[in-house]
Amino acid sequence: MALDARTDRASSEPSIPEKHDVVHIEGNDGAEEAEDPIEAKRVIRKIDLRLIPLLMFLYTLTFLDRVNIGNARLWNLERDLGMSGYDYNIVVLVFYIPYIILEIPSNIVLSRVQPRYWISFLTLGWGLSVTFAGFCKSFGGLLTARIFIGVFEAGMFPGCLFLIGSWYKRHELLTRMAWFMVSNDIAGSISGLLGAGLGSMDGTHGYSGWSWIFFIEGAVTCAAAALAFFFLPPFPDDATFLMPEEKEWVLRRLKTDNNQTGNDGKMSAKGAIRSLGDWKILTAGVLYLAVCVTAYSLSVFQPTILKTFGWSSLKSNLLSTPPRIASGIVSVCVGIWSDKVKRRGIFCVSGFTISIVGNLLVMLLTNGNLRYMGLYFASIGIYICQPLVIAWCSNQVVGSVKRGTLTAFAVSCGQLGGIISAVVYPSKDSPQYVPGISTCIAFQAVGILAAVNMWFWANRENKLREAGKRDHLRELPEEEFAKLGDKHPDFRYTL
């Protein structure tokens, strides 16, 4: 069921200048909006080109700088810093503490300042932290650097999702989020190659290979901060790269799509806490946690699992890339399809189901080739769900406060999946890794239940609104009625 709002618009409202034949797009209420399809595509493409490639680049660097410690470990990191026992595990896990805590506060700041200022500041902050990590002389120094990397990276992912969600109609959103999250696959594919190349500088100017990994990758991130500062677009209300009539058209279509004629204001701690009482935002956290347990497991342990097939280290590393490429392609295709048909639930449940089948093949079979096929299914299914659950849950809320809270809260819950995946794959469980894979399957089953519940409830509520069961809200004062958001009787949830 389409999620178009039913706000009446005066015929005097400006639209994009007509240069071609005009078509009429009908909303839920039968009202028609004059729109030149070629001009509309041109403006959306203009937004896409200004926003998506830059955010993809920044998020690729985020992922690389987060996981490069794994590559650095291969180049005498522990020996040089006198690390032993669980020191390395502590350094890896400590990153997640500030990352989880600071995501909602970061989005509160982002809603109050220009994105280019805040995101460029975060980029420069973690770039410098990575760079200075290369100078560390002790375990304590590296631990401090990892904490600061977590502090600055905390706002990047939810901030990017928040910004993307502010620019597009609800059924244009998943395609863009799928493209954005392809950055994971890009970073995962090149991190090993970069680690090998930069680490080979071992001994140059008296620094070990691990230091050069941090120096070079950190310096590139610092340079990227300048790109963010000069080229990252603001929220639509403050856009300067659009012509005045283009900006007005964008703002009007966004308000119409969200059925929101009033501004719900900037994010605040009070507003975020109040938003966390919305069960749809809590469901977003459950769904993204269900995704990330498997997604992190595949990212971190896939080469290890491949090696248990009896393959060499080189072959295992090389063959960990094709499933990521395949999953990236499929996730974008499903995103385009889902936006086209304006449905989310069926794709979400299907993605979790496909991934469960793949995990079962990896866990239960012994033939290496068949288990490798299982990894394809596991990867494709879960990476269908990763952008999908964020887009779907974002479709169910209205306003910058709820949208900013939702993206930050969901990503925070997702990081718990990274911690869980780090402790459920001990070496003693090789080669089938039954406890770890069973944990992934269990969380995916919870994801299916949460998705079915969202799907069922959204369908029920839409039917009640069609039957006029929420029309009593029309008697509210005009100012309150305009700010009902997803409670508006004309608003329709995405199925």
TrEMBL record:
It holds the Pfam family MFS_1. It comes from the Eukaryota. The chain crosses the membrane at residues 51-69, 89-110, 117-135, 147-165, 177-198, 210-232, 281-301, 321-338, 345-366, 372-393, 405-427, 433-456. One of its GO terms (cellular component) is membrane. This is Related to nicotinamide mononucleotide permease. Residues 51-462 form the Major facilitator superfamily (MFS) profile domain. Residues 1-22 are annotated as: Disordered. GO terms for molecular function: transmembrane transporter activity.
